[in-house]
Amino acid sequence: MLSAYTSDEIRAAERELMARLPDGTLMRRAATGLAATCAGLLPRVYGGRVVVLAGGGDNGGDALYAGAALARRGARVHAILAGRTAHEGGLGELRRAGGRVAEARSGDAVLMEDLIVRADLVMDGLAGIGGAGPLREPYATLARLCRRAEGVVVAVDVPSGVDASTGEVAGEAVRADVTVTFGAVKIGLLIDPGASHVGALTPFDIGLRPWLPEPGVVALTGADVAARLPRPGPESDKYRRGVVGVVAGSDRFTGAAVLTVGGAVRAGAGLVRFASSAEPVARVRARWPEAVTTVLAPGEGIGEVGRVQAWVLGPGMGTGEDAHALARSVLGSDVPVIVDADGLTLVARDRSLLRREAPTLLTPHTGELGRLLGVPSGEIEAARLRHARRAAEELSVTVLVKGSTTLVAEEGRPVRANLTGTPWLATGGTGDVLAGIAGAFLAAGMTCYEAASCAAHVHGLAARMAAGGPGEGEAPVAALDVALELPAALRSLTVG
Ligand SMILES: NC(=O)C1=CN([C@@H]2O[C@H](COP(=O)(O)OP(=O)(O)OC[C@H]3O[C@@H](n4cnc5c(N)ncnc54)[C@H](O)[C@@H]3O)[C@@H](O)[C@H]2O)[C@@H](O)CC1
Ligand SMILES: [K+]
């Protein structure tokens, strides 16, 4: 399990550790790790062109010390100082190692731009966990110039401009190829928009672990998911493996039903019971003969469908009066329910639907979450963590917020960030598949929190496999491809 922390938590741990070590030890450790990573990224250290962007704080200090280490190995290092002051020790060491220094406020702008664009490696030491609010000038201009860098951009601790505690980006921010982060992963490195500025995340241990608190955000690894997934034993039968009920689709939207059932079937449900109007039932029967189907008359509830251990409610079911009555019938059951898509619209209109004893998992994208909370979706995208937590608290449910970073929030537990997502997943119908997967896991006896976070992981993995790896040439995926790839994704997970 990967644990992530706020800036304040990291600082508190640093204070504890620093009190037990000679002055400057931690920065030395950090700079040594940073220099080693940078050396590995340069085609050749000797003669390599390195630009160090140094802010006025300790983040700049790390970068200057690391620059000095590279200069001692023969790299041609230029530091560009963004602050009115710079870390004294780091600057002195860089100068002694033969590094050159320019000041962003007074130096030749064209020359500095040229240095950044043509460097083999740019180290972003503008701001780390001490960064606050949108980057001011000249920090912002330097961060912007990094986009044009032809060489590799290495963020020191945090890409400057990204809020280390939340992943929020209020203005200009560095887009790094690699981020070397010290002591522990910061929350903002896992959550978009911050996460998409990180590049390859490279944690470097400086010994903080014993002083870190319980994390507020965590991410499951493949081994964590493998250890949690239900595996059939010799005693298993379809009922023990879990019966998922799916209420989805309508005469207008039949595809959502096929995809949701597909997600559940391919993720290993013992049995899927599908209930809807005649047209989606016909489509589901044709595509998934494994499913047991029931045709519901308009306004009819789920009374005759048979026993299930968890329901998936919503994809393509419509939002009219009959759909509302059906939703009430499903949410009136005493088993866990996943509410997705149209189900979320119904719940946003009538929150009384959520008053129930059994657990509920909502799976909104940011637009749907916006409707649930009465907040524009742009605000949610800019501050995902805050809104995911707020939704879980306000609605007293487990919430899985879909999007470029999928988050699972439940009151009293760390938020789980999913790391397997891929931009290829941003295509119609993939959410239906995700709801089906979560349904299969929930019916097998997992909690909403575990089922949601494991489903997000497996869903992302299946999408990546369907899209092909970077080496193989990537391609767009369709939602059904993701469902079909699920067994391979599940097979690839091994308990570590
Ligand atoms: N505290 C420690 O023991 C250690 C700290 N380390 C480094 O120290 C960093 C934290 O250092 P600091 O607390 O000095 O803070 P930072 O260096 O992260 O940030 C403060 C600097 O950024 C500038 N700044 C902040 N927000 C800005 C904005 N919006 N626009 C323009 N400039 C802005 C400030 O003026 C100041 O110069 C960590 O991220 C890490 O890189 C490491 O050396 C490991 C050990
Ligand atoms: K930085």
TrEMBL record:
Binding sites annotated in the UniProt record for (6S)-NADPHX: 58-62, 128-134, 139, 157, 256, 316, 365, 432
Keyword Transferase: yes
Cofactor note as given: Binds 1 potassium ion per subunit.
Binding site for AMP: K402, G403, S404, T405, T406, G431
Reactions mediated catalytically: (6S)-NADPHX + ADP = AMP + phosphate + NADPH + H(+); (6S)-NADHX + ADP = AMP + phosphate + NADH + H(+); (6R)-NADPHX = (6S)-NADPHX; (6R)-NADHX = (6S)-NADHX
The UniProt record lists the keyword ATP-binding: yes
Requisite cofactors: Mg(2+); K(+)
Domain YjeF C-terminal, first and last residues per copy: 221-493
YjeF N-terminal domain ranges (all copies): 10-214
NCBIfam families: yjeF_cterm, yjeF_nterm
Subunit structure: Homotetramer.
Name this polypeptide is given: Bifunctional NAD(P)H-hydrate repair enzyme
Organism for this UniProt entry: Sphaerisporangium krabiense
